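Entry 12.
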Amino acid sequence: MPITKRVLSGATLLLLVIAAEARTIIYTSQIGGVKGLAQYSSLSDCTVFFDLEEETDYTIVLANVENAIFDGMQTALVCKSTLFRIDGGCRNIEICHFNAEAKSGYTPDFQCMTSANNEKLRKNIDIHDNHLRGFSMAISLGADNIRPGKGVKNSKVYNNRIIGTLGTTPGKGYGIHLANARNCEVYNNYVENTTRHAIYHAWGKNNRIWGNTITHHRMPVDFSRESTGIIKGAVAIFRDSQDVIVENNTFIDNYNVSIHVYSFPDPSFMNEAHYADMNGIIIRNNHFVNNGIHSVNTGSSTVEVDYPAVMIGFNAYNPYTAPHQYFIKDVTISGNKFENLNTNCQQCIRMYECSSLDITDNEFVFSHSSDISSGKFWYLISLETDFKAYTSFKANIARNTVNTQNTHSTMGVYVLNELANFNNYPRNKITVKDNTLVNQQGTDGLRYKLQQ
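Predicted 3D structure (tokens):
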């Protein structure tokens, strides 16, 4: 087995290269420069170990690279620029074991994807077991401006710990960004203190988001907003997402919507041929604890803001001027546990736009021992859509359980707006059955309320 060593003065090891069976193993204590990775014309078929602790402004650009592993070896790294950029044509790439943070005063990503080399697909990109702090975007599989079929396939993001993100504008403030992805998984990640989205999904199909823990989402932002009602979900399922499963995740102490499904009729994309209905979104077996909590400082006063745990569609705060196109259908919300939502929250599940919806086998648990003031916890499930947009609307609300120690009499009310438009179409149907109130303390209990 041939071995090549390069040694600095004082016998300090800079680079060790071992060529074995057409695979190169590189130990490097320098990223950029002629003595670092820049000296290699290609990193295909390489395993690179980063044996270093340094501050770097170097970006490792991967294009048409195959069968490469980048192992950070848990050594401390401070980034002034984006560390990894994965362009088209890459496949079988693994990025793991980095302990990295953004340098104060800078806004780099840890890893990103762009539309560069866009004619080629990215496949089998695995990013795992990294500890990342303070990046503008921590991890990205795909990008919004990569067209369908030219994004990323068969890739995984797992076992990462992401603490804090920077920025709230598009392209910033993301924990994990998943766009134009197919057959991908995001799982077992811990994401805390993100400022825009903890996990963002758009333009993708057949992807699964599971087993993640998300906490304190938008905490540093929402306490200082100048206006109220800004919806930035911890998990955002947007833009032509199809057959997406969000399951077995835990949401704790989040300051905005925890899961938001939205068709997002962005005018710049409305006329593109690939735009299709969002459908097949499954939200199941997730656990929501103390979500939707906070008050907003508007500058002149403090306002209580009502954020549900799950929102389907958007409301009057839509920042886009295009009319709603009602592209959402076939959403399932099943087997979830909603626990101890704060006393300011009036809904656990709120629906604005969806033509077919199943809400079944969920558990709502509230352990507040004292009475809640009038108007609080008014609706557990709220259907607030404009029914004139549908010729056929179907909702099934069944086998849900409400367990409360609270004495307020309006706990567990379903509400339906726009009845006149609903009744104009005979194919519209809402089924509410076999829902149960456990440990009832109040007088009215579980009710189904129709509100004109």
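Annotation: Helices lie at 219-222, 419-423. The CA atoms of residues 231 and 257 lie 7 Å apart.
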